[in-house]
Every structure is written in C-alpha cells, then in structure tokens.
Amino acid sequence: MQEQEIIELLLQKNEKGIDALLLHYGPLMRYVIAPILQNPHEQEDCLSEVTIRVWEKIEQFKKERGSWNAWLTAITRNTALNHRRNMLRCGSGAELSDDIPSTEPTPEEVIVQQERQTEVNHALRQLPPKERMLFYRKYYYLQSTAQIASELGMTERAVEGKLYRLKKKLRKMLGGEVHG
Amino acid sequence: MDNRECDSIKERNFDTMLESSVSGLPPEDVVVEVTPWRKAMRRVLAGIALCTITLNFLCLNYILPAIGMVLSILGFRSLRRENKWFRNCFIITVIRAVYFFPLLILNTTIIQSTILALPVMSVLTIVNLLLLIVEFFCLWCGLRAVQQKVNLPPRAGGAVALIIWYAFMYILAVIQYSGLVIAGAMVIGYIFIIRNIYKLSKELDEAGYSIQTVSVKVTDRCIVISLISVLIIGCAFGYIFGGSYKMDWSKVNASANAEVEEIKEQLIELGFPQYVLDDLTEDDVAACRGALQVAVDVTEEPLNNGGASGDAKELLITGVGVQIPGERENWIIFHHFLWTIDPGFYGTEAIQLWPAYQGVSEGWASYGEVTGRVLYDDNGEIFAAPYYFLGNQTFTYNSIFWGEQTNTDIFAAFSMPRRGENYRGYIAYPIVELEDGYIISSWMNYTHQKSWLQYPAMTAMEKRMTNSWNDAGAFITIQDALQLYPEDEGTEIIK
C-alpha cells in the first residue's frame, strides 16, 4: 500500500489505516522507539501510544513542512521521550503535588530555548553532511554509540572520537562555555 | 566539587541542551539516511552491478569488479547477522574474493597465462560462477526473509531475474555466441533487472528498519585500506619479481677445441664477423665446417625511442648466411643481435623467426633444428644461457581483415639480467635448396619490453602472438631481414 493511501485512510478515520500504518511503518516506529525505551513491553506500549497520536493528529500533517517519514519519525520520537519522562516521574514513587515547583519551563526559559534552537540549527546547517548525520543519530534519534557504530561500520571508539570532535566543534560554533 | 566532576556536569548539560534543541521535524536527508538497511543494501546492489560490467579499456574490466567485490563484502558484512541467507551471501562473497583478489595480483606476473591455462583453474572458474548463482539465490531468500519478518508480503523477483540472466549468459558463453542481437537484449535486460532491484530496495526500506546490524571490531575503512594495501604490495612484488624469465646463466670458458678454432679462422677469412662468431656455440661453429662462402648484412635499429640521446640505434642486428658443402645447396642462416647500450627495462624479450623456407617454400626447406643462445658480459667475464623458450609455437589471433587466424612460427624467448652489459644472442638454422633460382629471405622480428606498465602482464612472445602493432603498449617490435641471392660466382645481398 502506498504512503498516500495510508494517509487518506487515516484522514477518513478508517481503521484499516491503522493496520496499514502498523504493517508498513511499524518497523520505522519501532526503530525510533528502541533507543529511547529499552524495555520491550514499554516499547510496545509506546507504539500503541504513537499509533493513537498519529490517528488523532493526522490532520496536522502537511507535506509542505516535511515528508511523511519525517513527520512520523518526529511524532514517534517525541511520544517515546514523553513516555520515558512519564515513566521516570512514576518511578520516583511520588505524585507531583502543588508544593513541588512545576518543571514546566517559564516564559523566559521558553524564549531562551527558542534562541538556542535557532543557534543550534544554524550551526548544524554549517556542518558537513556526515557530521550532521552523526549529530542527529546521537541527539535526535538518541542512538547508543554501539548502534551508531554497527550501522556505520565503525568501531565504538571511532564513533566516540568523532562525537567528541563534533561536540568540540559545536561548542566553538555556539560560543564556548556560554551554552555549557 | 572537583574540576573533573564540574566538567562532567558541564558535558551533561551541553548534551541535554543539544538534545532539547532538535525536537522538530528532522531534515529530509537525515530521515532518508538514518536506517540500518539503506547503506548496506546500496553497497550490495552497486557491488552486483559493478561485478557484471565489463568495459575492456583502461583496465576497467578489473577495477570495476574489484570495487564491486569490496562493496559486496561490506554490504553483506553489515547484514550477515540479520538472517542465515545474508550470512551465506557474506560467506560466498568472501570465498569469491579469496579467488578474485589473488588473481588480480597473479595478473602482474608473466606466469599468469600458464597458471590460468591449468585445468584446475577452469574448475575454479566454473565453481566461482556457480557460487555467484548461489549467492543470488541466497540474496533472494534473504530479501524475502526480511519482508516476512515484519509480515510484509514477500517479493524479490529482481533477484530471481538476476539468476536467470546469469544462467542464460553462461549458456551463451558455453556455446560461444558472438552475435549482437541477443547480446544487446541481454544488456537491456540487465539494466532492467538492476533497476527493478533498486526499486525493490527502496520499497524494502520500510522493512529494512527491522534488520539487525553487527557490531564491528574492524571498521569498513580498515578493511578497504587493508585490501588496497595488500593489492598494491602484491602487485608491486608481482611486477618486480614476476616480470621476467628465470634464465639458466653460466660462465663461458674459452674454447680448447683446436678443430673449432680452425673452422673459426676459416670463417673469418670468408668474412664472418668476429663478434658474431665469438658468441656461437662449438656445435654451431662446427656445423659450418668446410664453409664455401659467407654473406653478411648488418643493420642498426632504434629501440626505446633512440635512448637518452634520442638518435641512438641501440640494437645492432647482423644477418649471416654461410654456404656449406652438400649434395644440394646448403646454407646456415644466423640472426645475431647486440644491445650497444643499456636496454632500459629488463622484462621479457622475444624473437619471432620467419625462416627462408617459410616465405619461399618452393625454393628452400628446413634441414635441421633451430639453435641459439643469449649472452652478456659482467666484469670482463662472459655469461651465456639457452633461450627460455626456443621452438615452434602455434597461436591464434584476430585479424581486422581476415578474422581469426592460426599460425605456427619459430620463437625464441628470454630475459636479460639487470647486471651486465653487451647483451646479445643469436638464432641459427640450416636450410637446403629444393629448386634452383630462389632467393633466401629470412626474417627476424625482435620484440623488446620497454616498460613494466601493462595489465595483465604479458611476455614479449605472448604480445607478438596477438599480432598487435609493432609499437604497442609496453612492447616495441623491429623487423630485420637477411635477403640474399645465392650464386656460385658470389652471393648478392639484397637491401
């Protein structure tokens, strides 16, 4: 089944779209989830969550802003990160109470974060494609050094070396200690 | 808190900051490339395509398959953990590489044609081709297994088409089909098959996210560098140590045979050049016993583009005809060569002889075996060796005008040592008159190897047997003829 057909089915809220999504894009979603959530049960829970979110947010997908794979990757990654965050909160054994200061960012922090995002994106655009790819594997897909190494046909030590040099370069591009 | 702890916190903060800075949609090129499948599969496909392409110029028929073989190894190496079929593909590719890369090195030596002609090599070639078919079968099964793993309908028709295509090619090779129609159709078919597999690989990207890659101890780069290093070193050794014949040199002692000395004196009186006479074996001198007349023709031929000075004629060629007594008119023909300066490159040399009885078969016939030897001087001493090869050789070549031709000629093949000077040699053969009134026309083609730069390595004799141009690649050939009209009152040399 073609990508467009699946999108159409999802937009029509046809449940066949979910089946097709899991059949054709399940491997991609599992691939994105796996480095973030190691537990197989958690991975399956998260996959269900992602499916629901895709079902709910399919209207937000705009081809002009990025490809279907990019959108699916982003939604899967962010759902997996939220899932992990929620697990960590639950794992602490304490319910969030009103006494505990909220972890949500303040408006000032949001502005600072946006500025940082702009700067990082600008720096990333200046990186050679291979280094940019390495950056995304490490900081977007959150892949382990072992996974990056095996997929790129390199040793872990070589990947660590490349990541070290990449970080050094980015630190310099972003203005040194300010962001550290 | 010490500095180390402080640095560690800083690092973690920086990592967190980087992580949180990229939460939107990833760039398209990143989405396309971040998959455990694409790179490996593209390598495998490129490897298959390159191993099949045969472009017979600039050594591309060796370079492209070599690159293809490396790509296939790297591609299947990444996929080998995924399923047993890909593992088999990897093992088969490694076995084929073990056969292929030593052959590339062997091709830099002049023994390659001898080794490749061995029956065992024919068997190995067939096994290699069968392994390729088995590899495609495993690839087909491997692709289907990847799809089945994620419940996608299995389909990999391109790989099956590739098996059929190769099987058909083998059949065409066995029946030695040389027509253009089917060959053209096969090329078009091949392009379609590769396109089909490429498309399939894109479709398989969906399933490819599920594959397991292997952690590596040796990097791809390390494998490539090692292979290239082994090839370069192996080829260098091949060119240095495998580019010349092993000659059986021995010191020449002064002749103590009084009869031979007497014959020599007589020959000199008749005008036989002393420098040629000194190089003859006692048997060849003795064969000239009772010589009636001697005809000599000396020419100088340029090789190596005239040497350092540009106008030197490095090779002194002396043709000598000696009439000896007999019931019919008998002659012994000598073709002698002498390098007057350093030959430059020391590879292989060859002499192709077109004897008088070959060109003028109505007038002359062979009257014995071809003899000869090669010599050089070193520190005032003379060394001699029999030719590495001396005798008749039948060979087949393709002529632009006449198509495939088969000839039998007399060849003498040899190598000269790097030490020494005055490299020289001769070939001699007796003829007998069949009918009066014919000229003696004896031709000698001297082929000199002027450079190591050739692949696969050929000997001067092999090059000559391809009927190539006189100045072709690493070899140059000069022709010289001894032509004379024998008469009782004095032989006339024809210039």
Task: Jot down its keywords.
heterodimer; A: mainly alpha; 8 helices; 71% helix; B: 495 residues; alpha+beta; 2 domains; 8-stranded antiparallel β-sheet; 7-stranded antiparallel β-sheet; 44% helix
What is the count of distinct domains of chain B? 2
Query: Gap between N and C termini of chain B, in Å?
Result: 103 Å
Oligomerization status of the protein chains: heterodimer
C-alpha geometry of chain A:
globular
TL;DR of this structure?
Chain A has 180 residues and is mainly alpha-helical.
Write up this protein.
The complex is a heterodimer of chains A (180) and B (495). With 180 residues, chain A is mostly helical. Chain A is 71% helix and 0% strand. Chain A contains 8 helices and no strands. Chain A has helices at 3-11, 15-33, 40-57, 68-91, 107-126, 129-140, 145-152, 156-173. Chain A is globular, with a radius of gyration of 19 Å. The model of chain A is unreliable at 93-102 (pLDDT under 50). Chain B folds into 2 domains: 26-241, no CATH class; 250-493, no CATH class. In chain B, strands 1, 2, 3, 4, 6, 7, 8 and 11 form an 8-stranded antiparallel sheet that branches. In chain B, strands 5, 9, 10, 12, 13, 14 and 15 form a 7-stranded antiparallel sheet that branches. In chain B, a hairpin with a 2-residue loop joins strand 7 and strand 8 (381-385). The longest helix of chain B is centred in the N-terminal third of the chain and has 31 residues, at 119-149. Chain B is elongated and about 110 Å long. Chains A and B meet through helix 2, helix 4, helix 5, helix 6 and helix 7 of A and helix 1, helix 2, helix 4 and helix 10 of B.
